[in-house]
Amino acid sequence: MMISTDTLISITEANQNFSKVARLVDEKGAAVIMKNNAPKYIVIEFNKIPENAEVADKAAVSLAKQLISDKK
Q1: What is the pLDDT of residues 52-65, one digit of tens each?
Q2: Among 11-15, 39-43, 67-71, which range has the highest average pLDDT?
């Protein structure tokens, strides 16, 4: 996976300014949160998760999708 340096943010900054992470995702499509100078987490839009992606808790994903569709 190619990571653009424009999408990198430290975990400290993400913790203190999550709206910056959300803006990065809106503008660039993803944000990569660094921990100890290494990529640790990736944040993407929920609707960008592939339908065939494996998830740990399918019930949570199903509920999240239902809540999002109810907001539309």
Answers
A1: 666 667 677 776 77
A2: 11-15
* Tokens encoding 31: 């944000």
Residue 48: strand pairing partners: none
Distance of CA 23 to the CA centre of its chain: 11
In the numeric block, the tokens 């740990």 are attached to 56
CA distances from 2 to 5, 25, 33 (A): 10, 15, 14
| Residue 56, CB-side half-sphere exposure with 13 Å CA sphere | 0
Contacts by 31-36 with C-beta closer than 8 Å and gap 24+?
A: 31/7, 32/3, 32/7, 32/8, 33/9, 34/8, 34/9, 34/10, 35/11
Domains of the chain and CATH, by start: 5-71 (3.40.1620)
